[in-house]
Amino acid sequence: MASIVFLDSPVCSGFSYARDPEGCDVGDYSSSLQVQRFLIKWFTDHPQYLSNPFYIGGDSYAGKVVPLIAQYISEGIEGRQQPVINLKGYLVGNPITDPKFDENFQVPAAHGFGIISDQIYEAAMQHCKGDYVNPVNQMCAEVLQTVNSLISEILDAHILYKKCVFSAPKPIHDAMARKNLLEESVELNEAPARPAIDCLTYGYYLSYFWMNNKMTRDALGIKQGTVSEWKRCKRELPYPYDMPSSIPYHINLTMRGYRALVYSGDHDLQVPQLSTQAWIRSLNFSIVNDWRAWHRFTIAYANNLTFATIKGGGHTAPEYQPEECFAMAQRWLANEPL
């Protein structure tokens, strides 16, 4: 179906590293340019893949920079940069795109999911005048505080799942408990908080021990002395979110003929499918295949843009519904109807 290059980006996340600490100081624009440069070097070293159709993909925040990376690649193609990457398009899932859409549709989505009542939603509409991000008066601020309090009771990445410890880096002070948790080949300076075993995040917790296992690191070819400890979330990275919106890049790429697949797990409240539908509609592309079940649901627009929902999916849809997402990707990459 496809060969996949999985890239730890931005630099200093995952197992990627910089010899100079200042090399970790990147943002949306600079890290996307680094990805484009990396790909040029990678294809130079692996020319046997140059003829393959090439796509850029990512979920969540990667959905914001993926169109920018694709833009840089397309500019390199137009500038006859060698080697020429055979870019065909990109795909983004539950993509962070523009706060005007991403954040503003959380309130109507919360109402649709039954998290807030009709009365609370009506009060929000009355007092906030459609702006649920920047309260324009005291009444708006108060109703939004109520909305946020209710949302905090559930897992916003997937409203049906149990809310658990997120399993971000956190010291475990009990040395004996830590010794029992770790295999001899795993040595962590910081182990994450341990969720209950029936939590989705228990898999995140296990990832620390698997990724820091010597056998895993050796299999991945991690160089000695580069990354001492893998962390799922490196909150200390000095990363400025310096691109306000990726919508201009979506317009530019699709108008140039590149294919685009945008998909949403429909139980996500972080980036609700309502917000994704809204920014897609703001492109004013004509509909070429109207909304239908695929089985899930999809709509096709002019300029080769397809939007699909994944029933039962959360913020990173393939994590929750891998079989459906695999079928979707397989059909789309093969240029078949979903």
Outline:
38% of the residues lie in helices and 11% in strands. The protein is built from 13 helices and six strands.
Molecular structure report:
The protein has 338 residues and is of the alpha/beta class. It folds into three domains: 21-99 and 249-333, Alpha/Beta hydrolase fold, catalytic domain (Rossmann fold); 100-151, no CATH class; 175-220, no CATH class. It has 13 helices and six strands. The protein has helices at 28-45, 62-78, 99-102, 106-112, 118-128, 138-151, 175-181, 202-211, 214-220, 247-255, 273-281, 317-320, 322-333, and strands at residues 54-59, 87-93, 259-265, 287-293, 297-301, 305-310. Strands 1-2-3-6-5-4 form a six-stranded mixed beta sheet, sandwiched between helices. Strand 1, helix 2 (62-78) and strand 2 form a beta-alpha-beta unit. Helix 1 crosses helix 2, helix 2 packs across helix 10 and helix 5 runs antiparallel to helix 6. The longest helix has 18 residues, at 28-45. The two termini are 15 Å apart.
List keywords for this structure.
338 residues; alpha/beta; Rossmann fold; 3 domains; 6-stranded mixed beta sheet; 6 strands
Write the topology of this structure.
Blueprint: H1 28-45, E1 54-59, H2 62-78, E2 87-93, H3 99-102, H4 106-112, H5 118-128, H6 138-151, H7 175-181, H8 202-211, H9 214-220, H10 247-255, E3 259-265, H11 273-281, E4 287-293, E5 297-301, E6 305-310, H12 317-320, H13 322-333
Parallel strand pairs: 1-2, 2-3, 3-6
Antiparallel strand pairs: 4-5, 5-6
Helix pairs in contact: 1-2, 2-10, 5-6
